[in-house]
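Issue: copy button drops trailing tokens. Both records pasted manually instead:
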Amino acid sequence: MSRDAAGRGPTVAFACDRCGRAIFAPVGDGPIDVGRCPGCGQEQPLRPAPQAGRLERCLCCGLDRLYVQKDFNRKLGLGIFALAALLSVPTWGLSLLAATILDAALYRLLPDVTVCYGCGAQHRGFRKSAAHGAFDLHVAESVAARARAVVIPESEQVRG
């Protein structure tokens, strides 16, 4: 498995099923790891990490639908551009140019994070996989629709 810039191994971040707080768990080479919620103490078992360091399924929910994005806080990014837009009149638009240059530099410098369409878990420190592309709204909607689908037991189905 690969290590990130700070020398740490792979990690997974996800929301607690019980209280919704963020859980950050290191992923080891053992068969099963456990993430413990800092709020309520609930343990969340994780699926075994891939041997080759290449992520094929979500370590939290096991879904094989994953996408890659830059590891940057979206609210901070929007805040930077909102501030640049407010300052664009007194700076004659130079603040927007500066925000664009900053955005391009961050895009080149920041690492990628692999995100699960199903549970939103963020996997860091894994090798890139060609199977995981950018976010696709069609895939996200199909995963959400599959999660909402209600399975009716055969004994309760109406026969026509």
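Record 2 (pasted manually too):
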Amino acid sequence: MIGLLQRVREARVSISGEVVGEIQAGLLLLVCAERGDTDVQAEKLLTKLLKLRIFSDEQGKMNLSLQDRLAAGQPAGLLIVSQFTLAADTSGGNRPSFTQAAPPADGERLYDLLVARARALHPQVQTGRFGADMQVALINDGPVTIPMRIVPVL
């Protein structure tokens, strides 16, 4: 699974002008399931991002996780948006290839699993809509943007 994690001051996703998901400070996760991904990759990605220490502590060091912020009563939203273009292969020609992205049915199942598990573990989860034409607006905080890839173990 591929994730692009952004620490945000705020973020929202809209479809046809209607806001369908919105958070204040927290994390925006753009996520793509790849061929061969299973529930294991979704679980590992979620576990990692909830504990990733990328928020500043009192000394200004990146030392706090999303769950640490929640425990401290600080804004700790999580906005999860599916984005199959994260699997783009640009190594040949001028048109990206998306052959490594999971087939839509598999991608949607893994996205839904990730969202369901996130909601079970974190109370402030918002989402986009799988397969929809979405517009994402955000204020990146830092900026902090971290690519994440959880690969199947063979």
